[in-house]
Design goal:
Layout: H1 2-29, E1 32-34, E2 39-42, E3 51-52, E4 57-74, E5 86-91, E6 96-111, E7 117-126, E8 136-142, E9 148-149, E10 155-166, E11 171-176, E12 183-184, E13 189-193, H2 196-240
Antiparallel strand pairs: 1-13, 2-4, 2-12, 3-11, 4-7, 4-10, 5-6, 5-8, 6-7, 8-9, 8-10, 11-13
């Protein structure tokens, strides 16, 4: 029983090492950090040789091919606004007007200083290159009859997508592949982190598996040897048993 218990213990060790290796390989796969979408890099913070903790911010990736503008319209226009309707956006700082489309409507309740109940309308417009986040925009919606619907509360431009690029595992930042304000494509490598520590841990776990498997083999050999000796002992015992070949009296 002790040998079988030992084998169970070694199998548990193998399961733990196998799980550890799987988790380590998942971590190692995250050491190469790529762009989740096309855009350009801003707020670059990581430098080669930095020791990073998991979650450390390295840069911000923004998709400025399109911009969004959220403004608030009176509930008077609730039935006149729909996703897909045309819009115009005036950017005073550029003294220019751009065309956009309503892409989202949220029936929130925002009250103006005058007490007007408003809902949110998000307009998306293509960026010719001059639009940046934070620019104030004055929009209007083009109703079916051709009239313009104006918001009660104006807003400012935001990037279509913006994402903080962070370290997905702890370790040394090995290579920075991009510069601040560089344009990148989806899937492009941005940063590479050193994985030597994780590789050593994998090798250590693999050695642990090999040792446990060797111990299991040794234990099984001992069991087989013990079983064989028991069989031989039983056979000898049978040889010592004297039986009569014929009927008679002793």
């Amino acid at each position: 029983d002790d040998l079988y218990d030992q084998i169970d213990g070694y199998n548990d060790q193998i399961d733990n090492y196998t799980q550890q290796i799987g988790e380590l390989r998942e971590t190692m796969a995250q050491l190469v950090i790529t762009a989740p979408f096309s855009g350009h890099i801003t707020e670059l913070q990581g430098e080669e040789g930095d020791g990073l903790q998991k979650g450390a911010r390295l840069a911000t990736l923004v998709d400025d091919s399109q911009m969004t503008l959220t403004e608030y319209f009176s509930y008077t226009y609730e039935d006149a606004v729909w996703v897909g309707m045309g819009a115009g956006v005036s950017i005073p700082s550029l003294m220019n007007t751009y065309s956009g489309t309503v892409t989202e409507i949220k029936k929130v309740e925002r009250l103006t200083a005058e007490g007007t109940r408003c809902f949110a309308v998000t307009i998306t417009l293509d960026n010719p290159g001059a639009l940046t986040e934070g620019m104030t925009g004055a929009a209007w919606l083009l109703a079916d009859g051709g009239e313009k619907l104006y918001p009660a509360v104006e807003g400012s431009l935001a990037y279509k997508s913006s994402k903080a690029i962070t370290a997905q595992a702890a370790g040394e930042l090995l290579t920075v592949h991009v510069d601040d304000y560089e344009r990148v494509t989806a899937g492009q490598t941005l940063f590479t982190m050193d994985g030597s520590d994780y590789a050593q841990q994998v090798e250590s776990a693999e050695r642990g598996i090999a040792a446990a498997e060797k111990n299991i083999a040794t234990a099984r050999e001992r069991i087989d040897s013990y079983t064989q000796r028991m069989a031989e002992t039983e056979e000898k015992r049978e040889n010592y048993r004297v039986t009569s070949d014929i009927d008679g009296k002793v």
